[in-house]
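Predict the 3D structure for this chain.
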Amino acid sequence: MRNQINLGDAETLAINALLFLGDDSELLARFLALTGITADRIRTAAGEPGFLAGVLQFYLGHEPTLLRYCEATGTDPARFQDALQLLPGGRQDID
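Done. Predicted structure below.
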């Protein structure tokens, strides 16, 4: 059974994942290219609804990147999906 995650934990995970991107020029360049955002707008965009969910989706969309972060930080990869469900713009309800 996985540990429960709350909204604060989800936001912290996404912010830490964003900081991790910022420390890796190759990952950051790929993130910027995929999202269409510019580096100088990241700080502002991070406060917009859906942005932090987009950071988690970036990791979930590329398993090697997800595993790299998780190995470097000791994070369970399943926490990304759990966190995504809590963040604005991350919940994907399918009827």
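The longest helix spans residues 7-22.
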